[in-house]
Amino acid sequence: VQREERKLAGGLVLREATSDDIEGILAVQVAAFGPTDEPGIRTYLAGAHGDPSEWSVVVDGDRVVASCALFPKRLVLGGVELAAGEVEFVATDEAYRRQGLVRAQFDWHHERSAELGHVAQFVGGIPYFYRKLGYGYGVSYADLFVFDRATLDPPTDVTFRPAAPGDVAALAALEGFRAACGLRFVRTERFWTQWIEMATAAGVLDGRQVGVDRFWVAERAGEVVGWSAHTLEPDTRRFLLHPAVTTDASVADAVIAHALDEAGDDYLMIGHDTPATEYGRRVRALGRPFPYGLGIYVRIPDPVGFLRAIQPALTQRLSTSPFAGATGRVEISLYNEGVAIEYEAGAVTNIDAIAGLEDPFDQDECGVAPDWFPALALGRFGARELDRRIDDVSLGKHADLLEVLFPRIESDIVGDF
Ligand SMILES: CC(C)(COP(=O)(O)OP(=O)(O)OC[C@H]1O[C@@H](n2cnc3c(N)ncnc32)[C@H](O)[C@@H]1OP(=O)(O)O)[C@@H](O)C(=O)NCCC(=O)NCCS
Questions:
Q1: For residues 305-326, average pLDDT
Q2: CB-ligand 1 contact for 125 (6 Å cutoff)
Q3: Gap between the Cα atoms of 143 and 275, Å rounded
Q4: For ligand 1, is residue 28 a contact (CB within 6 Å)?
Q5: How many C-beta atoms surround the C-beta of residue 339 within 10 A?
Q6: Pairing between strand 338-344 and 183-185?
Q7: Residue 37 above 90 pLDDT?
Q8: Whose CA is nearest to atom 23 of ligand 1?
Q9: Is-contact 374 300, C-beta < 8 A?
Q10: pLDDT, position 316
């Protein structure tokens, strides 16, 4: 069913996009992000899995003046699979900015997302802005590294070619070489197909990809032994090597050397870690850190519901900790509201909404500002480190228990954005 349209100030209308809006959406996106992004964005509207109804538009008469999309994702956290949403392609025509058009569309997508049963929304983007819309920095980007070619030892029998739709099964099979634990998105047939479409949309010339997004498979003796994805940033002269997956460490050297070749001398090649994998170990051993502090934005609208959804993971952490035999209750004040977690003999037994405490610090209790709750729940730093970094997060006398319930968790979800 199509969602009902909404009238905004100045005669503007917010509504679900249709296929008639595709060119209008692309015009706004290209004006905001540049022509190099056009083929990729078109994929999300009109490709094999493109679906305009995942997009909202604000129109002034017939003209699209703002748009964005929310895509469904499956999130895995500590072995528990959850439904989530990812907001993408947020842009407003310059003449219509600062009129609340993004805020109105986010309200719309947040409602959609709740109806779809999503427990969280994710968005990657410019600093600060999304904090105004109910998001906090919940997940770190994978660590970044730059490389010295002389330290690499790439095998000569690994070759690269642009990924093609027929590679989807082989790419899915490589998922076994990703870390099984931690925080990640499930990579579906849709994910692989869209990435391949995006990379090939801009064209292949003499067997080489020429767009800003590129997606490769690595082969050894006719077998797919890895994949890598590149993004060229012409404005900053940066060349990003996204978190790759390989069957072993020697293929990692080949992936890094290939990215350096593709980047050439006039681009700085920056490679992402793929945490807790052979590939990542090699990246960390070879690379020089290239610090980057910004996180991925996350919104968790219902903290109690979220914790209930991950209750099996909380129990698992507790039952394998020094608190395995303990029984008790810990309260987390989110200031305006709160959540109580009860546990008995190593199992989390109850999670309930309670009133917030205005100043938990006074009573040596725990307080977490709501916009930092996603960082706690998704294990961005671990509870203790979050307390150390953030003014209005304090663990009080429950620090040991909270560190057990909310440890630091490795994540490679930046590779899915
Ligand atoms: C960033 C952008 C999407 C904002 O669109 P917009 O329609 O002006 O956003 P809204 O008017 O709904 O803004 C929501 C709130 O954020 C504020 N805001 C808008 N742009 C902001 C910015 N760049 N930084 C900080 N705050 C900003 C608004 O004043 C408003 O605050 P309020 O609700 O307290 O009054 C738009 O400027 C744009 O298209 N920029 C180019 C593309 C881009 O950077 N997209 C985001 C990439 S992730």
A1: 97
A2: yes
A3: 9
A4: no
A5: 23
A6: unpaired
A7: no
A8: 129
A9: yes
A10: 97
Q: At what angle do helices 249-263 and 278-286 cross, to 10 degrees?
A: 60
Angle subtended at Cα 39 by Cα 139 and Cα 217, rounded to the nearest 5 degrees: 65
pLDDT higher than 70, residue 236: yes
Long-range pairs for 337-342: beta carbons < 8 A, 24 or more residues apart:
337/303, 339/303, 339/304, 339/307, 341/307, 341/314, 341/405
Q: At what angle do helices 38-46 and 22-33 cross, to 10 degrees?
A: 150
Q: Which residues contact 163 (CB under 8 A, 6 or more apart)?
A: 171, 195, 196, 199, 215, 216, 217, 227
pLDDT at 181: 66
Residue 103 Cβ inside 6 Å of ligand 1? The answer reads: yes
Helices (H) and strands (E) in the chain, counts: 12, 24
pLDDT value of residue 206 = 75
CA-to-CA dists, residue 15 to 18, 104, 303, 404, angstroms: 9, 10, 29, 45
What confidence tens digit (pLDDT) does each residue in 98-125 have? 999 999 999 999 999 999 999 999 999 9
| 234 vs 313: which has the higher pLDDT | 313
Is 203 a residue whose pLDDT tops 80? no
Q: At what angle do helices 38-46 and 189-201 cross, to 10 degrees?
A: 140
User: At a CB cut-off of 8 Å and minimum separation 6, what does 34 contact?
Assistant: 235
Question: Residue 413 has what pLDDT?
Answer: 85
Atom of ligand 1 nearest to the CA of 93: 39
- Read off the pTM: 0.95
pLDDT of residue 388: 98
Q: What is the average pLDDT across 368-374?
A: 98
Ligand 1 mean position to 132 CA, how many Å? 9
DSSP secondary-structure letter at 389?
H
* Full DSSP string of 86-151: EEEEEEE-GGGTTSSHHHHHHHHHHHHHHHTT-S-EEE--STTGGGGGT-EEEEEPPPEEE--GGG
Region for residue 345 given its phi and psi (left: phi exceeds 0; alpha: psi -120 to 50; beta: otherwise): left
The sign one gets for the Cα dihedral 377, 382, 384, 385 is negative
Q: How far apart, in whole angstroms, are the C-alpha atoms of residue 123 and residue 283?
A: 26
For the chain, the average pLDDT equals 95
